[in-house]
Write a structure and sequence with these properties.
CATH architecture: 2-Layer Sandwich
Strand content: 25-35%
CATH topology: Dna Ligase, domain 1
Number of domains: 1
Helix content: 10-25%
CATH class: Alpha Beta
Structural class: alpha+beta
Largest sheet: 5 strands, antiparallel
Number of strands: 8
Mean pLDDT: 94
Radius of gyration: 15 Å
Low-confidence stretches: none
Order of helices and strands: HEHEEEEEEHE
Distance between the termini: 29 Å
Length: about 130
């Protein structure tokens, strides 16, 4: 089994994007679904769906590309790791990559983007960044 499900999911998305695959499959976890909802809302992926078979669930992520075939994801990184948690205050979450990028933050209000966390006046654990 995978120790860090978020890092595994991010790596699978990054690798599939670099190979220009249409979709990739991830292990199912509620936190991964929450992160994918943020990615979809920000337009980095087209869609995702949860598949169930034989009492096992997985997630199929449909990756997005522009009209020239370039991936919508330039870079995706894990920030907070199991060995070193990274927490950010509200004022540290204002902008990332001049508004082109997003930091996914786990807050008391759920897993949200850095802009929503700033508007809601909350800080939290910075899970990953994407741009």
């Amino acid at each position: 089994m995978v120790n860090d499900i978020i890092a595994d999911s991010i790596t699978r998305i990054r690798n599939a994007s670099m190979r220009r695959l249409e979709y990739t499959t991830l292990y199912y976890a509620k936190i991964v679904v929450s992160i994918l909802e943020v990615f979809k809302a920000k337009g980095f992926i087209k869609d995702f769906r949860i598949n169930s078979k034989d009492n096992k669930q997985d997630i199929t992520v449909i990756l997005g590309y522009d009209e020239r075939g370039n991936s919508l994801i330039s870079e995706v990184k894990r920030i907070s790791k199991p060995g070193r948690r990274v927490y950010k205050a509200r004022n540290e979450l204002k902008r990332f990559k001049n508004g082109y990028g997003t930091i996914v933050v786990s807050t008391s209000k759920g897993v949200i983007s850095n802009e929503e966390a700033y508007k809601n006046n909350v800080g939290g654990e910075a899970l990953c960044s994407i741009w």
